[in-house]
Every structure is written in structure tokens, then in C-alpha cells.
Amino acid sequence: MTGLSFQGVTKSFGAVRALKGVTFPVEEGEAHALVGENGAGKSTLMRVLAGIVRPDGGQLVWDGRKLELHSPRAALDQGIGMVYQEMLLFPNLTVSGNIFAGREVTGRGGRLREPEMRARTARLLEELHLSVSPDAEVASLSIAHQQLVQIARALAFECRILILDEPTTCLTDAETAHLFAILDRLQRRGVTLIYVSHKLDEVFRLCQRITVLRDGEHVGSFETGKTTPREIVRSMVGRDIDPAARVPRTVPPDAPVVLGVERLTRQPWFEDVSLSVRAGEIVGLFGLVGSGRSELLETLFGLYRPDAGAVSFAGRPVRFASPVQAIRTGLGLVPEERHRQGLFFNLTVRHNLLIPAENASGPWRIDDGRERDASRRLVEQWRIKAAGVETPPDGLSGGNQQKVVMAKWLQASPRLLLLDEPTKGVDVGAKWEIHDLIRRQADQGMGCLVVSSELPEMLALADRIVVLREGAVQGELAGAGADEESVMRLATAVRH
């Protein structure tokens, strides 16, 4: 048969069985989606195909022959390229240097043929409609352009299978549309696309077929035109859920204000921002890219000093000189970038879970036994899939990493939790769990200030929505009466 076939692929990491005899075909030249909850085995299976992980059993067959992939270089030599969710580029090298890193074109005596590499890079960039110089340093590029450089690297040697793992996580709608136009052109050229994503709207827009994994097993493969997002979600999680469904909440009108912000300014990010969060209230902070949302949360948490304005916490004025002061006062921050800001990858899950609580309690002495017991309880409570509490975070799926980030702050019992894109890069089931947890914590009296780029999430979660545009508050809406049109009208309004 033509095309690619996974046949009985198995893989275990210690006691964790990541893949359990996965079998399904991918037709040549199609765009094929791979979906499932975090920890379902999607990334492990794609790393097997990319030559990064060796399977314990089973085989990969392509065009009727068994694939032997002992390394990523072997996969590239076979025409299999992968674009990773994390930016795996050398920021200090040029675009051309990154595209040919490890596969440099050389002449006699091993001398680099730089003009040829620059010329080939220029042709690739033109093909991708990317107006970037081959000599530009990658660190100077936007996230979207860096993502396209990763695709150019995969295409540099005529890859026939292109794997994309959550490629739009950090892209705007316009950048995503540009990427999809490129992928459409590649598919018309006969390139097979395997698209891993939690965003079902993108999956239905791009792909002809969808394969669902659950707990390391193949649940089913579906033709996009003959199924629905609801059916795919049911296959992913094994039950009917609607993560966008609004759960009615009432905040007592006499609930005390836990956070007060008056005319807070930090140039050039935001100016004269005023808002409040009451105990037990979920306040959404919505705005387009560049509106100053993340910068406002970081300033409230003591990462940066404001230029002007005042902040009060539980009725008392505060000015945090550091995040440690904010933590000890009763604040927590779930950052947008869990890989760079939310986790210590050189420490274990146990240490990551308990560090905020130890900081909140002041000077402390390490008690390994107590820590192990406490962290095991958290892992069980949060249903974090990990081989053990001594596992490093890079041994966990993205959704389980996010659960660690959330759990570690709630372990510190904050009175106010700042959440920046709390469900970014997690599957629909984990998103529902995180929403439910935020609501339960708010029901117990914790105030929440939530930033999200997803309007359906904002409308489903927030009791009130404060809308920012270009660093200024444009207006405020009650969550129960808001709709996408009214929020976007404020988010795109011209400042007066």
C-alpha cells in the first residue's frame, strides 16, 4: 500500500505505558489530524515517527517498506520533518545557519558553501512568502516567523511527511491564516501533513481525516466531513462535555474587594488602568495581542515596578518589591509560558509542587518525607499523570505540566490568583477540569483575575469582563450578558 502505516506501536517510560499497540494508516498527500487529551500519547507517537524515540514494539511502514529510524537525522534522510511546539532554534545564528544546522553544504576540505546555503534559504523563504533576510539573526524574528523558519528547515531537503505539533499556540489569527495558506500549498504539492492540535476548529478547517488517541490507544479515525467536533470530543474523553458551557455563579454583593487597582501605569505597556476583584469573583481580562494584559499581571505580581498609580490588597495599599513579597501577601501567578516561567525543569515534580507554599510560609527546613507525602497527595488530587513525584517536568505531557503549575499555586492557599492563559496548549478535557477547578476555588472565596485570548473561554468563565485595548481599559461587561460581538467591539474600538 502507499502512504504511511503505524502497526502495533508500543512504548513505555518506566511504569507508564505511553503507547499500547497503536495501529492506523495515513494516506499519502492528505492532511491528517492527531488529537487526544494530554497524555494520550500523541507527542510520543510523533517522536517515534521523527526518530527521536525508539518504540518497544510494532513497526512503521511507508510505501510498503518497513521504516528503520534510529535518529532524527535518519528520519530527515527519509524525508520526514517535524515542527515542534517549542522553538528548537539557535537564537544567535542566522536564518540560513538554522536551516542548515547539522546539515551544512560543504566543498573541498570541508569549507562551508555559504553563498549556496543563503541562496537556497532565500528560495525557501520566498516559497513560504516570508519576507525575512537569510542573514537575519533568529532572535530578532517574531514567534510567527520563527515557526515558519522551523517549517523551512523541515522543507530544506524535500520532506515528504511534515509533522506539526501545536504549531499555532503562539500565533495570532492572521499569522495562523498565513500558516494555513502555506500548508494548503504544501499539500497540493503532495506533502503529507500530520497535524497535532487541541484546536478542533483548526483541525476541521485543515484536515481530511482525524485520528483520536486515548490513554495510549487508538480509539478511531474519522473523515472530517462525516463527523462533528462533539463526536471527536466524546471520543477523546470518553464522555459528553461542553467546556464552553457557562456555569451560573453568584458573587455576594457585599463580598470584600480583595484587589483594587487605581490608574496603574507602566509605560509603554499600559496606562491609567483601574479595576477591582472581589473575594469569590472571577474577573476576565480580555484584549488583543499588544493590549498589555500579561504585562499588567506581571506588574501586579511584583515582577516590575509601576510608573504611577496605586494597588490595594484586602483594603490595604501594597507595593511589591518582588514576587516573594506578593506570594507572602497572598497572591499567586500562573504565567502564560509554563516552559520559561512556570516550571523548574532541573527540579522534580515534588519540588515544583511545593516551592510556592514554602516561599509563602517564610524560612523553612527541608523534610523529604513530608514533601513526598504532600506532593503525592497533590498528584492524586489533580490526577497528574507522572511516573512518580521524583520525575522531572519534561517527562510529563503539556496538560500535566499545566496541572503542576496550577496545583503548586493553590497549595500555597492564595487569596488572589492571577491566571495568564491558564488553558493554553491543553486538551478539551483538561480545559474543562481547569475551568471547574477555578470555579470551585472562587466558590471558596478566592479572587481570580484571568487573561485569555479565547473569547468562548472568557465568556464561559468570567463573572465580569474588563476589556483592554492598547494598554487602556475600554470598558467592562457583565459575564452573563456578554457575547463575542460586544467584547470584540470594545477590544477593537478606537481610543479617545
Provide keyphrases for this structure.
496 residues; alpha/beta; Rossmann fold; six-stranded mixed beta sheet; 20 strands; 34% helix
Could you explain how this protein is built, in words?
- The chain has 496 residues and is of the alpha/beta class.
- The chain folds into two domains: 4-237, P-loop containing nucleotide triphosphate hydrolases (Rossmann fold); 260-491, P-loop containing nucleotide triphosphate hydrolases (Rossmann fold).
- Helices cover 34% and strands 24% of the residues.
- The strands form four sheets. A six-stranded mixed β-sheet has the order 6-7-8-3-9-10, with helices on both faces. Strands 16-17-18-13-19-20 form a six-stranded mixed β-sheet, with helices on both faces.
- Helix 15 (428-443) links the parallel strand 17 and strand 18.
- Helix 12 (349-360) runs parallel beside helix 14 (398-411).
- The model has no long low-confidence stretch (mean pLDDT 86).
Characterize the largest beta sheet: strand count, sense, and whether it forms a barrel. 6 strands, mixed
Distance N terminus to C terminus? 64 Å
Total number of domains: 2
**Helix share, percent:** 25-40%
Principal-axis shape: globular
Q: Which CATH C-level class of the largest domain is it?
A: Alpha Beta
Instruction: Please count the beta strands (DSSP E, at least 2 residues each).
Output: 20
Alpha-beta classification: alpha/beta
Number of helices: 17
Do you know the CATH architecture of the largest domain?
A: 3-Layer(aba) Sandwich
- At the fourth level of CATH, the homologous superfamily of the largest domain is P-loop containing nucleotide triphosphate hydrolases
What is the CA-based Rg, rounded? 24 Å
